[in-house]
């Protein structure tokens, strides 16, 4: 599977999309480069929520590996998202090119770092890593597959996944989330939320007995994507996902002009709820510059 990211991650194809080496290589040849910012934390969250789910082709019994390829320093908290993946037993390999931050690569990658962190000066040099990285990946999969996995939950659905996400009490700066718990209570919930058009994701971690949360300090008149992900000792259940928009800030109303003179006028209006200041702009009509 492959996802590309900038300020808004995009799944190019899922794990279940192709079944032969030739099909994958053809998909790579047809890949269109996605420019933009470097929100690595948002990208890793996208991979967890969208790409490592059974309906995207992730087999529950298979080892989960993520290869991060980046040419810059993240503009959000990549370490927090990476730690969440690693806590769920997902192994991260970090490959840096050009302007990648070596310290960040080592923070994001799984141990042992001598096997999971790579850095090259330019894109053509990536080809020099292919042989070694292939051998390391295959060896790690074999090693991990032989470990005891009896405690790993073997199904998702109602047993491990919450249901019935309700978003209510939406204002210009806040919203309330509530959901029904899965049959098997999780250890914790991760609630991740971010503007749908790109922005730094924020996260709230709740105890498994909690089934609601108030999100505050949001941006007004903005569409948000929210996800509620149950976390168990050795796995994550399917998350709930919702989209909603905060309300616009209220506006002043009923503007009136009075007390006109040759060089002054008086303005009055009905107050905007919650406003602490007003900015008044005036200009000579119709095309005068602002005074």
Automatic annotation (TrEMBL):
Domain VWFA: 1-133
PROSITE patterns associated with the record: FN3, VWFA
Matches recorded under Pfam families: fn3 (PF00041), VWA (PF00092)
UniProt KW keywords: Extracellular matrix, Secreted
SUPFAM superfamilies in the record: Fibronectin type III, vWA-like
Gene name as annotated: Col20a1
Protein name in the entry: COKA1 protein
Residues in Fibronectin type-III domain copies: 161-250
Locations listed in the record: Secreted, Extracellular space, Extracellular matrix
């Amino acid at each position: 599977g492959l996802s590309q990211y900038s300020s808004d991650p995009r799944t190019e194809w899922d794990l279940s999309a192709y079944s032969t080496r030739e099909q994958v290589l053809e998909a790579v040849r047809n890949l269109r480069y996605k420019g933009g910012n470097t929100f690595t934390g948002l990208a890793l969250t996208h991979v967890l929520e969208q790409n490592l789910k059974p309906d995207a082709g992730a087999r529950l019994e298979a080892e989960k590996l993520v290869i991060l390829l980046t040419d810059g320093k993240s503009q959000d908290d990549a370490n927090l998202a990476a730690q969440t993946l690693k806590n769920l037993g997902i192994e991260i390999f970090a490959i840096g090119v050009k302007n990648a931050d070596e310290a960040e690569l080592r923070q994001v990658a799984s141990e042992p770092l001598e096997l999971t962190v790579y850095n090259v000066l330019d894109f053509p040099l990536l080809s020099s890593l292919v042989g070694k990285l292939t051998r390391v990946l295959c060896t790690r999969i074999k090693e991990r597959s032989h470990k005891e996995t009896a405690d790993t939950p073997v199904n998702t659905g109602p047993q491990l996944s919450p249901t019935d996400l309700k978003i209510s009490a939406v204002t210009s700066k806040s919203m309330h989330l509530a959901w029904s718990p899965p049959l098997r209570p999780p250890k914790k919930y991760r609630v991740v939320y971010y503007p749908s058009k790109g922005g730094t994701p924020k996260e709230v971690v709740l105890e498994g007995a909690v089934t609601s949360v108030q999100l505050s300090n949001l941006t007004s008149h903005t569409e948000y994507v929210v996800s509620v992900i149950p976390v168990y000792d050795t796995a994550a259940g399917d998350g709930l996902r919702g989209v909603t928009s905060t309300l616009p800030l209220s506006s002043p109303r009923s503007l009136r002009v009075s007390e006109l003179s040759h060089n002054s006028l008086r303005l009055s209006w009905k107050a905007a709820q919650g406003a602490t200041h007003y900015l008044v702009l005036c200009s000579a009509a119709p095309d005068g510059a602002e005074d």
